[in-house]
Amino acid sequence: MWIVAALGFFVAEAITAAASSDYGYLKDYISTLGVPGRSPRADLMNAAFVAQGVLFPVGAVLTTLGVHARKVLPFLSLASLNGVGNLVVAFVHSGAGSTWHVVGAAVAIAAGNSAVLTGSSVLRRAGGARIHLVASVAIGGLGLLCLLAVASGASPVGLWERGSVYAIFIWQAYTAVYLLSRGS
Known about the structure:
- This protein has six helices and no strands.
- By secondary structure, it is mostly helical.
- The protein has one domain.
């Protein structure tokens, strides 16, 4: 599920961005691609937000089945918040003056990167390798630092936002490959 959501997101984003002649990866927010009327493939981008909103928390539940670690509940809660935030982004579009879109995006990104940090600890306690923990902390930490750059208004906003969002996708795909290679 995590691999499908990550690959689906990147493919949907590339197709949608290619169809939007005035869109720029460095200057524009990702969710701009989901605005009907501005983006000719808005439905595709919003479908990618919905897919992540469903598949990230469901994957988190499946990943932690049988794990008896203290941080399972916080990890599942953060993964669920990421899902809710992505669903809000998919259904409440940017540029409409709605604070709900901004709140949804902030929750999705902050909770997603926090889930990366918490999830790495859960997997480590369940027998995961130390290298996975170290890589996960680096990915989640970088994602949160990029989010701080977005919040501070650093330019170019598209670059910083992608750093904060892509960190989540990179971790979930990396973790899925890692778990599948272990036969877990």
